[in-house]
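Write out the 3D structure for:
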Amino acid sequence: MAWFLSYILSVGLSLLVGYGLLVKAMGQSAARRQMSHALPWIVLGFAIAFTSAFTAVWKQSVWSFIHLAYIISVSLWLLIWPVRKRKAGSLQLNVGRTWHNRMLFWIGIAEFAIAAMITWIAWLTLTEVANSSIEVAQLSLKVAFWWVLAAFIFALGLNKLELRDNGLCFLYNFIPWQRMKSYTWDTNYPNILVIQIHPRFVFLPASMNIRVPEQHRDAIDRVVQTYIPCSPPDSLALS
């Protein structure tokens, strides 16, 4: 139970810090939109943690399954990215790394440090205490999970925003122009591009906010407006 409470506190603190950074970089309205988009995943994380916290018998098995599923899904996601990227067509504009990428880069660095610390603790556990083969496997999955998580966030930080013939590539995602309904620029932060999209699932966000480098704003506008209509800034209040 104690670890569950510490989990709640750490997640809550992380959310507050993240919200503060978003407000500073993108403004309060954009920060609220971003946090509302993340809410379903936060609730899911709490549900998983709550369930495993009160099922002591299955707790390690549940977390091992989550670790394994994450490792496999993220690895496949990155491995098939070149195939998915081909669908985007030829490059029209390479915007480069955005504010999101730079933030994720440093978060990835911090995650590598956390992964190294967890690896060290796991090594001490294995060398000082007798463990069964199941416990060794579970501990190995936990260590692998943290390294994959760090590598994934770091890779997101190195990724670039690209506008291509058939859509937009950002954070290892390809979003076709057909899925985008309209776009606008935030009135308070003119270099924040807000795109209204058709989400694949109802629980996914219907808009995305990208803080782009100011020197590329006009070039981005010229490309995007050829594919999707520009909506008035007032429409942000409805998103």
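The CA atoms of residues 3 and 65 lie 19 Å apart.
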